[in-house]
Design brief:
The complex is a heterodimer of chains A (about 110) and B (about 120). By secondary structure, chain A is mostly beta strands. Chain A is built from no helices and eleven strands. Chain A is globular and about 45 Å long. The chains are: A mainly beta (about 110), B mainly beta (about 120).
């Protein structure tokens, strides 16, 4: 079952603009991750944020986490055509030794040149 | 490291045939996961292994599906007999041991095996 739900389902932006997508989840977590999937490829890990962190940066990526609202956002700044992909959030289950990750349905981002 | 290697990349078969998908995880990774991706259901975890032992197969849809990991460098996912609704992209992913509690599980995915059952 899908723990995370991304919003919006699809996003189209101009090159150079910022892209923001959100993820909401249902149960408490240890960590939340974001992955990218280019068309016809496997998922690639982008960034991980722990439940005791509120914000994290990696290059042009900025992730926030609000555990009180059970939500996270991924911001891609100064987007490029190469950022065109689907983006997924993935969560685990807090306090468990269960190593399963549940993925959301994803946000498809199209960056127009 | 060459990453997670999956084969075949594409498979087209007829209903009722046996399908075997293969995966070579990254050397040293203790966990191996099989996921299935479809437009309707998204990414579903089918089964995962720790040190070659199946830990949770609750996502395996039916008895027609089986998975094995005979050693640390090889896993198979078998569907017998296959049905058209099994058409999907099947991903294998591996991750290193990170400890319990608040440890994190960062997955490296293979390129996937696209299965079409006619």
């Amino acid at each position: 079952s899908q723990q995370g739900e991304e919003d919006p389902q699809a996003l189209s932006i101009q090159e150079g603009e910022n892209a923001t997508m959100n993820c909401s989840y249902k149960t408490s977590i240890n960590n939340l991750q974001w992955y990218r999937q280019n068309s016809g490829r496997g998922l690639v890990h982008l960034i991980l944020i722990r439940s005791n962190e509120r914000e994290k940066h990696s290059g042009r990526l900025r992730v926030t986490l609000d555990t009180s609202k059970k939500s996270s956002s991924l911001l891609i700044t100064a987007s490029r055509a190469a950022d065109t992909a689907s983006y997924f959030c993935a969560t685990d289950a807090q306090g468990s030794n269960d190593y399963k990750l549940s993925f959301g349905a994803g946000t498809t981002v199209t960056v127009r040149a | 490291d060459a990453g997670v290697i999956q084969s075949p990349r594409h498979e087209v078969t007829e209903m009722g045939q046996e399908v075997t998908l293969r995966c070579k995880p990254i050397s040293g990774h203790d966990y191996l996961f099989w996921y299935r991706q479809t437009m309707m259901r998204g990414l579903e975890l089918l089964i995962y292994f720790n040190n070659n032992v199946p830990i949770d197969d609750s996502g395996m849809p039916e008895d027609r599906f089986s998975a094995k990991m005979p050693n640390a460098s090889f896993s198979t996912l078998k569907i017998q007999p296959s049905e058209p609704r099994d058409s999907a992209v099947y991903f294998c992913a591996s991750s290193p041991w990170t400890g319990g509690g608040s440890g994190a599980n960062v997955l490296t995915f293979g390129a996937g095996s696209r299965l079409t059952v006619l």
